[in-house]
Amino acid sequence: MLVYMLHYETGGIPMNHKIQLLAIAPYEALKHVILETAKEFPQLQVTVEVGTIYEGVEKLKQHHLENYDAVLSRGGTKMEVEKNTTLPVFGIPISYYDLLHIIKLVEHYQGKAAILSYENIANSARVLCDVLQLHFDIYNIDQWHNAAEKVTQLKEMGYTLIIGDAVSVEYAEKLGMQNVLLTSGRESVREALTQVTQVTTYLRRATAENTLFHAGLSRQGVHLLCYDETGELLYDDLPKNLHKLQTFCRRLLPAIRTEGDKTVYRKLPEGFFEIRAQRHHYRNAPYSLFFIQPQRFFTQSGTPPYLTFYEASSGHSEQRGLPNFLQIVSPTAWTQALEMAKSVQPLCITGAPGTEGDIFCQQLYEKSGRTQTPLLQLDCRLLHQEDILHFCTDPHSPLFLEQGSLCFRNLEGLAPELFTLLVDELAAARYSATGRLYFQLTGSPEDPLLQERLTVLRETFRVFHIPLPSLAHKEDKILNYALLYLQHHNHLYDTKLVGMDPEAVTLLCQYSWPQNTSQLRQVLRRAIVLSTETPWIRAHTIRQLLRHEEEIFRPSLRQPLPLHQTLDQLIQAVVQKTLEEENMNQSAAARRLGISRTTLWRLLKKKKE
Asked: Which of 497, 183, 491, 173 has its CA nearest to residue 317?
């Protein structure tokens, strides 16, 4: 039916009088700003792709350019796009307001900072700095190819923060430097879209012949489903035993319409499947296409409860681009970690509670070169003996997935006998396994359990150990993390926070942060929500939030539970700790524990026995 529709209706396609604009955004947040601003221009039909330089050119080549009237991009990406199309290419500027916002945000950065940009932006930055009487070292690049060399020179000159365009900050990140992206705000995008509508004078003649099938033909060997906007199935080449995927894909249609293209994974008795959903238009009518490809995974049905997936660069997620505290504290250690992430050597990440070893593992995975398959995360607290045996011996286990990556999280929560079994089985399977291994443990560096398990992993797998720093006694680094997080939030959600009161900074730096970066990030996130009426985070907001944190994290609750003990031992430890805090007053201790004095007496008697 679909083939007939495509080939029969190849002539007489009506003209669409809207200006068809293809935008190549060098960073994800700009895509959101373009789409939101484009709503003010009813004469424009805008498609946005995200990619810098050559990646942006590849995204450009994926489109049928004869269907577009113009292209919109920015900076070095615009320069490369111009070389690969005969269409007019418009540039998105960086306005004085955009520069002012960035400069004010990093004004109090504790370190050596430089602005690295093209000449027109650099000149604007100099004018602003002169007017505001601010000192920033400003450097020019004439071609994006020169960015890498210039960033390297600046690092050798002692600079720790690069403020620049997407290419400059990408090279800075590779060198382990802190970086802030020069972003274009809504006014700059509005100026560019206005120019597009004024300059573009010609219309496009749409041709959609075989558009839908071109996508299918480029993915030979992949099953294809096609639904129209009403949810009616127009095309299906699934074998009979996989027809249940029709229902699953139909349920995804509302999400595809609102969120756009996405990739999901589905486990069936017949195997594990990657499902890529895409939106296409034919004669102004939208269609949803699902490309279904079988993957080698578990033979049993259902995804195990201990297994979760993390996909690289999953769109507009908060975790993507989070500041990295290890990078702030020790750029050298971060650079070394990045180098190891690209190797095949197993990695072991340790850190105190709240240092977010799981997020750090995801950041390393994003840099590993193995992102074509998801990062599979195993929560070791949920593993049983049969799970370990099956995971390490099943030929369809993710352990044997080509270019796979596996993170064993919360290893400290695994019972001693199960930890030994897991290590032995992984050691036996590692010569045939192709998956990259990450291990993650949470606990104090002095914790004997953590040290014991780290030693075993070193001796068995020769893991490279990455200890994550805590926030204790690192006041200046806390400030840098907070400033970079505010910029990350601005970049992600198009907010316009400029900074914090000096007293607010002092309060943040003097707090003990028992839950480290996860707690700091939570406080900053709440402070941002409470600061919608002002571009500054005020001291009273931080003071109020820290008071709340003090209530939650009283000293008695800051010690991690010894999860390697038995349940009876844990109960006795909690009872004893509560008695000590209540000055051995059994009535007060019983009330606090929510039990009767008789029950408390029995527990104490059991301990003596």
From this structure: 491
